[in-house]
Write a structure and sequence with these properties.
CATH class: Alpha Beta
Largest sheet: 6 strands, antiparallel
Distance between the termini: 20 Å
Shape: globular
Number of helices: 3
CATH architecture: Roll
Number of strands: 6
CATH topology: Thiol Ester Dehydrase, Chain A
Helix content: 25-40%
Length: about 140
């Protein structure tokens, strides 16, 4: 991967983040972006807890979905989700810092497949997400 490809990936994700009010509300911080790869993190807040006193699964899903979106759009090819799934492996608590790492498994002409691992601050796997995207062949920036 060339430096210019990684610079483009960073510019695309920065543009996406500027327009993504929900990721901003979540408090997502971009850690690293490369072509086909993203790593982001966020701190879990009290208003993210469900009626059982643990973090709502939609919060963890949303973090993973943002990492997925950043990774699959990193080549400046507008890509949208076709199918996603998540497995929760450990409950998330208020005060946890979650890191989502999106890795490209397949980069096809019209689809892409990504695996996103979500870990807490103790490096414990709290969820595993898989996403399939469709590439529209339109640019973002």
């Amino acid at each position: 991967m060339s430096t210019s490809e990684n610079q483009l990936a960073q510019q695309v994700v920065q543009h996406m983040m500027q327009e993504d009010r929900f990721s901003q509300w979540l408090g997502i911080e971009i850690v690293e972006v490369k072509e086909g790869y993203s790593q982001i993190r966020m701190l879990i807040r009290e208003e993210m807890v469900n009626g059982f006193g643990i973090v709502h699964g939609g919060i963890t899903f949303s973090l993973a979905d943002s990492a997925f979106a950043f990774a699959c759009n990193s080549r400046n090819n507008l890509s949208v989700a076709l199918d996603t799934s998540i497995n929760f492996t450990k409950p998330v608590q208020v005060g946890d810092q979650l890191t989502a790492t999106a890795t490209e498994l397949h980069n096809g002409k019209s689809t892409g497949l990504y695996q996103i691992a979500i870990h807490n601050q103790q490096q414990e796997l709290v969820a595993q997400f898989k996403g399939l995207c469709y590439r529209t062949h339109k640019t973002l920036i």
